[in-house]
Design goal:
heterodimer, A: mainly alpha, 72% helix, globular, B: alpha/beta, six-stranded mixed beta sheet, 14 helices, 6 strands, 48% helix
Chain lengths: 487, 353
């Protein structure tokens, strides 16, 4: 199920919230937890019930490892269980996400003809696998208690974070689940949650999906782009990805608040970063936290000299790239970030004196790297870069802007088509610039939770929130999927 | 700053208000005629065939229907109103498959008594599947059900609010796609030999054997059976069938693809069956050589100019071109002869031999 769908907003959410708080009134918390798990499974299996078996099998496997870790004290057996847990999770991820990629590359390298399997990628598999990996490792380290089966089920399947994060840790979720104070609905939690959900909903539906009109059309058309239009498309893609993913996270966190949970932050104005290192402190923060805790530090982090630190950094970003998808574009995107991190580590003083200049350089690097991330193939990305630097000027920028045909500007478009067709291109270009200005203002302004806290309860704030919700809800006639679902 | 409790109250109230307003506007203007005919004497506008059809069939006022494919869209149905003293609604379906049109005909009969059915009968509509396609997953459910529960996608829909309603209002004001010109798409289109030839690149060779049309034969018989059932079931309704005037390119295309015999099979099955009923009149004008062999009347192989549409209506009104139980075979033979001359000779007025 999608957060931005009528079935979710009008049916699922009221049912889930109502049932959760009604059952929380019972002395025994188990029915409420069973209910929450049941609703989460409905949410997850809505489009494809087959995915449920994969999720349930993965949960049963990891819970089983935890049970065995609980029952055994021998170091060797515990190590074996840890290795089994890690291999089991990575094996699941490998099979569903990377098997065909692997076979494809083997076929290419060894001129083999191994046939590819028909494997459907289950939604959010990378997220719930990482979440469970962290649980197994922390259980091995003895940092978390063995969870009850219902607590564990709620922790993994909790629908707001199930499909695209944020990647929540056991130690930050289960204590909240067990706290008594969350058993009553509070106006505070509901209001904060609803306002954050609305802001995320609007970011996704009104902004990201509109930017996608240009991006999706022009990525199929790269060979015809000139330099200006290549940059125009790249910049829109960066904003689309950011508003799409941060909008999803705001919705997830808002939903968490409605149910009484505080989910971790995932974004901290990342497009204002003044270095790649700074960017990764602000972008997809829960993934960075995971990779730092479970890859970088175990590899030795910065404790074994500069050279080893550089290797570790590069490896972390290689893993990050691979985690994002089974395609060489993602691998290369990870490598680009890895190299940039190494560069910044080796030459920490090689920076401009002015923050704005550093921000600009970082933004240009990120934009080019996102081009690789979005492209279907490496050659498509290279072509896009070529167009961006050597594409010259052929006036196609106006054609790019012509993709901006959406219901909100329909009346103006039609009017110009009938009475002043000569001004149509100008009108579309103005639409592009307007959207660009809105994006820039939004990334420079307050973050959604801060805005909701400071302005969300004023007359204007409430009016804006209600209007944004209604406007976004009306836009659900054209539902799109989230970009981060398949990662 | 309000307290969070008060803010929550106001927020939910305002959201409810906005959603109510949006739903009220869609209900009031009802561009797909799902709930009612236009209020206050506003003119009904017909510019979105598939979306407007079910609602208009259910809720508008009429006593006759003009059915067909896009080839029937440019007919001026007000001419029929004047000529036959009726009030006609256009019932159009892309490709005009018989099963889809019968679906609409049945829907019309649930709420209306029909005096006349004018049916622009495509030959290709008869060999299409006899199952209607209006309940597949690509068709919005709310259009075809009267249940309120699935109407959310209509009542809270940005496209309808920001596009369809303003367009309907503007078209209504301009008098475009209203009255007899419902769904008329001819404005701004070029009807010329150039356009017609762009749409048909005549192959040099014809296929060696006629296409096997066993499946299509079954479809034709089932479709005709279903049409006959409706005619027999409603003797109070007068059915007037006529056939669209395909260009000679269409006939030549059928010939080079080995489908000509299939077309004549359809005609030979259809004409006697329709003519066996007393409440049926059939008009056959497809053999009008001056029209179909002049490609300036067309914009592609089949779509003819509004002048041709009017020509057909005039002929029908004056009773010309009517075939009977006694002379239908002559009409088919005339067409067969013309098709032969087209493929042998007439087509080369435009295409190199």
């Amino acid at each position: 199920m999608l957060f931005n769908s009528v079935i979710f907003i009008a049916v699922f959410l009221p049912l889930a919230l109502g049932g959760w708080y009604l059952l929380q009134r019972l002395d025994n918390p188990s029915p409420a937890r069973v209910f929450l798990i049941g609703m989460s499974l409905w949410f997850y299996g809505y489009y494809n019930p087959y995915y449920l078996w994969i999720l349930l099998a993965s949960m049963a496997f990891n819970y089983g490892i935890s049970v065995l870790l609980e029952r055994t004290g021998g170091v060797r057996i515990r190590r074996f269980l840890l290795a089994l847990g890690i291999l089991g999770n990575l094996g699941l991820l490998f099979y569903f996400k990377y098997f065909n990629f692997f076979i494809d590359n083997c076929n290419f390298l060894f001129h083999a003809d191994i046939s590819l399997e028909q494997i459907a990628l289950p939604l959010g598999i990378s997220f719930f696998t990482f979440q469970q990996l962290s649980y197994v490792v922390e259980r091995f380290r003895g940092n978390v208690e063995h969870a009850g089966i219902l607590d564990y089920g709620c922790f993994i399947s909790f629908f707001p974070q199930l499909i695209a994060g944020p990647i929540v840790l056991h130690q930050e979720f289960v204590p909240q689940l067990q706290a008594r104070k969350m058993r009553k609905p509070s106006a505070d939690g509901l209001y904060d949650g609803i306002s954050l959900f609305i802001l995320g909903f609007a970011k996704k539906v009104l902004l990201a999906d509109t930017l996608a009109l240009v991006v999706n059309a022009e990525f199929d058309n790269i060979a015809y782009l000139d330099a200006l239009s290549a940059w125009a498309v790249l910049v829109f893609y960066v904003f689309e990805l950011y508003f799409d993913f941060s909008g999803y996270t705001d919705m997830a966190r808002g939903l968490g608040r409605m149910f009484g949970f505080e989910l971790p932050e995932n974004f901290d104005s990342p497009l204002l970063a003044d270095s790649v290192k700074d960017f990764w402190r602000r972008w997809h923060m829960t993934l960075s936290r995971f990779l730092s805790s479970y890859v970088y530090i175990p590899l030795g982090g910065n404790r074994k000299g500069r050279a080893r630190q550089c290797v570790n950094l590069f490896l972390v970003f290689l893993v990050s790239g691979i985690w994002h998808g089974a395609n060489w574009t993602f691998v290369l995107w990870g490598c680009m970030h890895g190299l940039a991190m190494v560069w910044e580590t080796v030459f920490p003083r090689l920076r401009f004196r002015w923050k704005a200049a550093n921000q600009l350089v970082t933004a240009v690097f990120l934009t080019l790297a996102w081009g690789m991330f979005r492209a279907d193939t490496v050659s498509q990305a290279v072509l896009l870069w070529k167009r961006a630097f050597t594409g010259g000027w052929n006036g196609i920028f106006l054609g790019v802007c012509n993709q901006l045909r959406f219901p909100e500007n329909y009346v103006f478009r039609k009017f110009l088509e009938m009475f002043a067709p000569g001004y149509l291109n100008l009108f579309y270009a103005a639409n592009y610039l307007l959207l660009l200005a809105i994006c820039v203002i939004l990334i420079r302004g307050r973050k959604a939770p801060q805005w909701a806290a400071s302005r969300g309860r004023t007359k204007t704030g409430i009016f804006c929130l209600a209007t944004l919700f209604a406007w976004a809800f009306l836009s659900l006639s054209q539902v799109s999927t989230f970009l981060y679902f398949n990662f | 700053m309000y307290s969070k409790k008060k803010s929550l109250f106001w927020l939910l109230g305002l959201i409810a208000g906005w959603l109510f307003l949006a739903a009220f506007l869609v209900w009031f203007f009802d561009p797909f005629y799902q709930y009612h005919a236009p209020f206050f004497g506003m003119e009904a506008v017909f510019q979105d065939r598939d979306n407007q059809m079910p609602g208009s069939v259910r809720n508008l006022s009429y006593d006759s229907v003009l059915m067909g494919s896009s080839l029937a869209e440019n007919f001026d149905s007000s001419f029929l109103d004047r000529q036959y003293g009726c009030r006609t609604l256009k019932v159009i379906r892309a490709a005009g498959s018989a099963a889809d049109l019968l679906y609409y005909l049945d829907m019309a009969r649930e709420t209306h008594e029909l005096k006349n059915v004018f049916w622009c009968l495509d030959l290709t509509a008869l060999d299409a599947s006899p199952e209607h396609t209006l309940s597949n997953e690509n068709v919005p459910r709310y259009l075809h059900t009267e249940a309120v529960l699935d109407d959310g996608a209509y009542l809270w829909n940005k496209d309808i609010l920001f596009q369809t309603i303003p367009l309907n209002l503007a078209y209504g004001k301009m008098g475009r796609n209203t009255g007899g010109h419902a769904y008329d798409w001819s404005q701004g289109k070029e009807f010329s030999a150039r356009m017609a030839m762009l749409a048909y690149e005549k192959p040099e060779e014809r296929v060696l054997t006629e296409r096997d049309f066993t499946v299509q034969r079954e479809n034709v018989l089932t479709n005709l059976e279903q049409i006959a059932e409706r005619i027999k079931g409603h003797p109070e309704t007068m059915y007037r069938f006529f056939f669209p005037l395909y260009s000679m390119n269409w006939w030549d295309c059928a010939y080079v693809n080995g489908e000509l015999e299939e077309k004549f099979y359809i005609l030979e099955q259809t004409l006697p069956l329709l003519l066996s009923f007393d409440n049926v009149e059939v008009y056959y004008l497809q053999d009008e050589e001056e029209i179909i062999c002049n490609l300036d009347n067309y914009m592609d192989m089949v779509h003819y100019s509004p002048a041709v549409s009017q020509y057909i209506l005039d002929k029908m009104a004056s009773g010309e071109g009517r075939v009977t139980r006694d002379n239908w075979q002559e009409a088919v033979e005339r067409m067969r002869g013309l098709a032969g001359r087209i493929t042998e000779e007439l087509i080369y007025r435009y295409y190199p031999r």
